[in-house]
Amino acid sequence: MKTLKINQLRPTQMTHGMREIREKTKEYEALTDHELEMAIASKPIPIVYGPRGVPFAIDHHHVATALWHAGIKSVPVVLVRDLSSFSQADFWLTMENNRWTYPYDHDGRRRPFYEMPARIWRLADDEFRSLAASVRDAGGYEKTSVPLEEFRWADFFRCNLPRPDSDKAFASLVKKAVVLAKSKTALGLPGYLGPVG
């Protein structure tokens, strides 16, 4: 399997959840050398080659960032599409049409593609992206193969809940968010499990 250095990978989103990354980093750091090799091999980073052959990660931004923080410099990659001959405009249009990019900031506002960070570990923290992952892990909704699923849930929570300002507030918010995720208000979101009770 082909490998690339993490610092070569360009992100296709503007935010990630730092709480989720901190947890993943601890998990990777706790593994033995062999266990770490197996964990890394089990989650290759899907990439698309952009203009001038630049590799863009289209998923597993949290995995790549957590591995970077754990001191890992290279990761296995899987080529999904080669768009290296495209212009910048056609590249981003194709990326968006395939739902391989999410150009929205931590407030849910659309941003121009030129503001996309240059390094995968330099994305802005979005507490609601972490909340979406925590709610899924707590059984609030099911993981699906729907592209950008966690961002849709993050935006749903952003519109319905206050932004947490501490670890205690975050833990409290997870419980409220699980109830909200199972309410009729969340009907239509990927992985929806239905009303509570």
Task: Write structural notes for this entry.
The chain has 197 residues and is an alpha/beta fold. It folds into two domains: 123 residues, Alpha-Beta Complex (Conserved hypothetical protein from pyrococcus furiosus pfu- 392566-001, ParB domain), CATH 3.90.1530.10; 58 residues, Orthogonal Bundle (Helicase, Ruva Protein, domain 3), CATH 1.10.8.10. It is 40% helix and 12% strand. The protein is built from seven helices and six strands; from the N terminus they run E-E-H-H-E-E-H-E-H-E-H-H-H. The protein has a four-stranded mixed beta sheet. Strands 2-6 form a two-stranded parallel ribbon. The chain is globular, with a radius of gyration of 17 Å. The mean pLDDT is 95.
| Element-level helix/strand string | EEHHEEHEHEHHH
Structural class: alpha/beta
The CATH first-level class of the largest domain comes to: Alpha Beta
Distance between the termini: 47 Å
Helicity level, as a percent range? 40-55%
Q: If you consult CATH, what is the topology of the largest domain?
A: Conserved hypothetical protein from pyrococcus furiosus pfu- 392566-001, ParB domain
Overall geometric form = globular
- Integer tally of domains: 2
Computed over alpha carbons, the radius of gyration is: 17 Å
Which percent band covers the strand fraction?
5-15%
Strand order of the largest sheet: 1-5-3-4
Mean pLDDT equals 95
Q: Tell me the CATH architecture of the largest domain.
A: Alpha-Beta Complex
Low-confidence stretches: none
Strand-helix topology:
Blueprint: E1 3-5, E2 15-16, H1 18-29, H2 33-42, E3 45-49, E4 55-57, H3 61-69, E5 74-82, H4 88-97, E6 124-125, H5 127-137, H6 149-160, H7 167-181
Parallel strand pairs: 2-6, 3-5
Antiparallel strand pairs: 1-5, 3-4
